[in-house]
Amino acid sequence: MSSGMNTVHDWLNAHLTESVEELAQFLRIESVSTQPHHSRDVEKAALWLQNALTAMGMSAELHPTGGHPIVLAEWRGAPPGAPTILIYAHYDVQPVEPLAEWTSPPFEPTVRDNRLYARGAADDKGQLWIHLMAIRAHMACHGALPVNVVILVEGEEEMGSKHLRPFIDAQCGRLAADCIVISDTPMFAEGIPSVLSSLRGMAYFEIRCQGPSSDLHSGQYGGAVRNPAATLSRILASLHGDDDTVAVRGFYDEVQNQAPADRARIRALPFDEELFKSEIGVTALAGEKDFEVLERLWKRPTCEVNGILSGYTGEGAKTVLPASAFAKVSFRLVPAQTPQEIERLLASHIAGLAADGVTTTVRMLHGGMPWSADVAGPAFDAAQRALTTAFGRAAVIAGSGGSIPIVRDLEDALGAPVLLIGFGLVGENAHAPNEWLSLNNFRLGAHAIAELFVELVQLPELAESHA
Ligand code: BES
Ligand code: MN
Ligand code: MN
C-alpha cells in the first residue's frame, strides 16, 4: 500500500461514524419502488442523492423517466490517459411488510452488534454509500481521484429496470467506461471477500385461473363446478418432477455445461452444508442430485413459486368455492436460456393442462438475461488485489444465484468488464424483515473500493496487452 493510500485509509477510519450517520439519512427515505403510494418518497431519495453527489464535488443530474428518475453523476478530472470507471447501483428498496417482524422500524436506521439495521442497508443504499465514501476519501486527501468516475443509480432495480435499458442505449456515449463496478451482492462469507463470476437471469410470471364469475357456496355448487384453486394447484405441482428437476418440456435444452475449471473452482470453496441448513432452519436440502449445493444455487436454472392467493384464508372455516386463483412463479436462468424462450415454454406447458370451465392466463412481469464473466482479465486481477489488501485475506471468485438483469445490458452496451464486488453477507435479510449491513464490511469495503481506484489506473495498458 502506498503512503498516499495510508492517508486515504486514515481518513476513512476517522470519518466512519459521520459516514454512517449520513447513510442513515438516506436510509430514512422510504423509497419502495414497487408500491405506488411511495412514489413521492422514491423521488425524494433521487433528489437527496443528487444533492449528496453534488456536495461531493461531482456534477450530478436527475433524469426523469416514465417511471422513477435515474441519477447520473460524473467526475472527469483524472490525469490524461486515466481510465473511466462506471459505478452502477440502485436507490430503490423492497417493501417492508410484514412490519411486525422488525425489531426496530425499517426506516429508522439503528446500530446493534456493529450492524446497521434498516431497509436498504445492504440492498443497495449502504453498498452505494461505500463507493461514495471511497470517492470522498480520495477527494479529501488528494483533491482528486486517480480515475474518472461515472455514477449511474436507478430507482427501478427491484421492479425490473424497465426504464434503465433505453436510457443506457440513448446515453451509451456518456456512460462509456473501461470497467463497470457494482456492489449489490453479498460476499462469499464473513471475512472472505469475493468477486462474482456469474449471476442468474430471471423470468417472472403471474398465472391466473378464472372459474365462475363470483365466489360460490361450496355445498350448493361443489361437485359440478371446477375449482380454480385446484386447477392452479395442479399447474404448480406439475412444474417439478419427483427428482426436483424442472418439468417444463424444453427447459434444459439451451443450458450449457459448466467448464471443468469453473466446476473445480466452485468445489474448492469452503462450504459447510450443515451450517447452511441450520442457518435457514431446514433439516434437509433439495434440488438436482448430480450437482453440489453451490452449483445448484449458482449454475443451475430453477423454478420457484413466489406466492399463491385464492379463496378464504382468514380465521375459522368458510365453505367457499373461489372464483379465481392466482400465483406468482419465477424462473432463474443460466446461459444460454432467455426469458422469451421460457415464456414460450411455460405457455405451452400450461396449455397442455387446460381444464374445462377454468380459464388460465399467463403474464410475464419482467425478465432479464443471465450473466457470466471471463475472470482471466486485468480488471479481475485488480479487484482481487484491492479486496485482498483491504480485508487481509485472499479474495475468492464466487458465483451467485441472484439476478441483476441490467448487468448483462451494461456489459453488452459498453463492452467493458463488469466487477461485481459485494460487501453484504449471506444472512443480511435482504428483501426480508431486519435487513442489516455489517459496519465492519462498510469500513473495509470503502478501503477496498478506494484501493481499487488506484489498482485500476493501469487498466487501459493492461487491457491492451491482455487482448
Ligand atoms: N441485489 C439484488 C441481487 C442479488 C441478491 C444478487 C443476492 C446476488 C445475490 C437485487 O437487488 C435483486 O433483488 N434482484 C432481484 C431481481 C430483480 C429482477 C427483481 C432478484 O435477484 O430477485
Ligand atoms: Mn440490489
Ligand atoms: Mn434486491
Molecular shape: globular
The average pLDDT score comes to: 96
Helix content: 25-40%
**Quaternary:** single chain
* CA distance, first residue to last residue: 28 Å
Extended strand count? 19
Number of helices: 16
Bound small-molecule species: ligand BES, manganese (II) ion
Percent of residues in beta strands? Answer: 15-25%
Largest sheet: 6 strands, mixed
Unreliable spans are none
Notes on the protein architecture:
With about 475 residues, the chain is α+β, with helices and mostly antiparallel strands. It is built from 16 helices and 19 strands. It has helices at about 5-15, 15-30, 40-55, 125-140, 165-170, 170-175, 220, 230-235, 260-265, 275-280, 295-300, 340-350, 380-390, 405-415, 440-455, 460-465, and strands at about 60-65, 70-75, 85-90, 110, 115, 150-155, 180, 195, 200, 200-210, 215, 300-310, 320, 325-335, 360-370, 370, 395-400, 420, 435-440. Strands 1-2-6-3-7-18 form a 6-stranded mixed sheet, sandwiched between helices. It has a 4-stranded antiparallel sheet with strand order 12-14-10-15, with helices on one face. Strand 4 and strand 5 (about 115) form a beta hairpin. Helix 1 packs across helix 4, helix 4 (about 125-140) crosses helix 15 (about 440-455) and helix 13 (about 380-390) packs across helix 15 (about 440-455). The two termini are about 30 Å apart. Bound molecules: ligand BES and manganese (II) ion (2 copies). One manganese (II) ion binds near residues 158, 430 and 431.
